[in-house]
Amino acid sequence: MALVVDNADVITMDAVTGSEPVTRSIRIEDGVITEIGATVTVNDGDTVLDGRDRLVTPGLVNAHTHSWEALYKGRYDNLPLELWMLYSYPILGVDPLPEDVVRLRSLLFAIESLESGVTTIVDDVLETPGQSASQLAAVFDAYEQTGIRANVSGHVINRPFIDTLPFVTQWLPDDIVRDVRGQATVTAEEYLDYSRTAFAAHDRSAGGRLRYMLAPSAPQRCTPDLLAGATALAVEYDAECHVHVLETRTQAVTAQVDYGRTFVEYLRDIDALSPNTTFAHGIWLTDSDIDIVAEHGVCVSHNPLSNLKLGSGLAPWRTYHDKGVTLGLGTDGCSSSDTPRLLEVAKSAALVHKITDPDPETWPKVGEVLAAATTGGARSARLGETVGSLEVGKRADFLVYDLTTLAFTPRSRLDHQWVYSENGGSLEYVYVDGRCVVDHGRITTVDRDGILRELREAMPRIAEWQNKLDELNGVLHEPFARMYRESLTHPVPVNRWAG
Ligand SMILES: [Zn+2]
User: Fold this and answer.
1) Which residues have C-beta within 8 Å of that of residue 143, sequence separation ≥ 6?
2) Average pLDDT over residues 398-426
3) For the chain, give me the number of helices (H) and strands (E)?
4) Which terms are listed as keywords in the entry (predicted)?
5) Residue 161: which of 215, 222, 214, 216 has the closest Cα?
6) Residues 182, 129: contact at Cβ < 8 Å?
7) Which tens digit of pLDDT belongs to each residue from 190-217?
8) CA 480 to CA 335: how far, in whole Å?
9) Same domain, 23 and 143
10) pLDDT tens-digit series, residues 117-133
């Protein structure tokens, strides 16, 4: 039995029609698009969805997020990354989160993603103080249940956090320096072994929908053997290797002060770049860094909402395009954006670069933004052949919008309205692998009300834990603020406050 979408307005995002809406019918069998055209085969017993007054698009791909932060939504504002991390990823006094909380957190994040049209998430799961195999399994389990497509890491930091920032140790009490430096870290070989086990247990599970991903945190947060080893292992498994690179000006200073070159040059020099590599953020890169990124086939996840909220700067959108670098779009975590709704990121990306250059020729086009939100994100996730566009042979991950809503009235340019007007209220159905996982805005695969109730009941205990950690880690606030101010006085090779 097949599913047929009959005669809808369709944005395919394929190489021919791109983001231009066209009238199409689509046939789906066993989770795969088998026909798409003016007419398709319809057999007795097929389920037919009437396409009249409906827009069908590929599912959105969130190319960078951290589900850990789902429990931190709305807690912080007006903190730059280096201070924000003190609270969102505390380093003092953290006990591992129990698996049932990890599971609930992942369910919440998947539900809100799917209900806003995000069918694929690149979830860089950062547990503090470090991830256990059972915590990782709880995330995979939640995503298997919800029906979302996901790359799940494996995030690792294996250098003492205070040594990943410039200048700060001089202002910290000796006992804290000693304590933080004394915290257990993994070796490169231990992380690679952990990852081989994770590949065996989880990679391509749930019918291929779920993948394991390598995620060395950042060049300054990992040892060179771990960065190079993770890059090589990702190539071996054709998996994504996800790395935070030059998100902030402070990181650009760190590269100059501690490494004597840019972080892109450093990663190239230690053999930690490949076509499997995706940089999260990629803001404070020089133009010649971007040449290196392009030469090595590295992709970049652009996260403008998070970058605005943390005051990080703006990735050079037009330069990346001019040099042929594949861009995806990411929400980043719910403590820095504070939403998994990728359409908000698409709208921000379409708008914010318009004030960085007076020449309108350089401004993002809606088609480019939609490509980043679909095909670009899919390519960055090593899923370019699997999802991102509506084409024969691809998995049937797609969205069905009601065109009779206020957001789509009057109907002018559907691609423009998808980015600029739609607020989530028009989304009728979400399909992943040809299976309907959201029906009229509500997830169908899990007990939404029960999960939210369980979470509400658990939240007082969780908030108490968060408040305690805020207080404990708050002693580091002033030394970190001094480090932030001090780093502003050091020159960096490029200014990305304005893209
Ligand atoms: Zn991130």
Assistant:
1) 106, 110, 123, 150, 152, 206, 209, 210
2) 97
3) 17, 17
4) Hydrolase
5) 222
6) no
7) 999 999 999 999 999 999 999 999 999 9
8) 19
9) no
10) 999 999 999 999 999 99
List of long-range contacts for 25-30, beta carbons under 8 Å, 24+ apart: 25/51, 26/56, 26/390, 26/396, 26/398, 27/2, 27/3, 28/2, 28/3, 28/4, 28/396, 28/431, 28/434, 29/2, 29/3, 29/434, 30/434
End of a domain among 443, 458, 478? Answer: 443
In 296-352, alpha helices (H): 304-309, 317-322, 342-352
Q: Domain of 47?
A: 3-58+391-443
**Position 1 pLDDT exceeds 90:** no
Beta-carbon contacts of 447 under 8 Å, excluding residues fewer than 6 positions away, are: none
- The angle that helices 99-115 and 133-146 make with each other, rounded to 10 degrees, is 30
Tell me how far the alpha carbon of residue 66 lies from the centroid of ligand 1, in angstroms: 6
User: What is the count of structural domains for the chain?
Assistant: 2
CATH number at residue 317: 3.20.20.140
CA of 169 to the centre of ligand 1 (A): 24
Say yes or no: 185 and 203 in one domain: yes
Distance separating alpha carbons of residues 364 and 349, to the nearest angstrom: 8
Task: Give me the percent of the chain exceeding a pLDDT of 70.
Answer: 100
Average pLDDT over residues 37-47: 97
Instruction: Tell me, yes or no, whether 251 and 110 share the same domain.
Output: yes
Residues 249-267, mean pLDDT to the nearest whole number: 98
How far is the centre of ligand 1, averaged over its atoms, from the C-alpha of 96 (Å)? 20
Residues 54 and 68 reside in one and the same domain: no
DSSP 205: B
Question: How far is ligand 1, taken at its centre, from the CA of residue 55, in Å?
Answer: 32
Q: Is the pLDDT of residue 17 over 90?
A: yes
pLDDT at 184: 86
DSSP state letter for 154: E
Distances (CA, A) of 359 to 236, 356, 490: 44, 9, 31
pLDDT of residue 152: 98
> Which of 205, 189, 100, 89 has its CA nearest to residue 147?
205
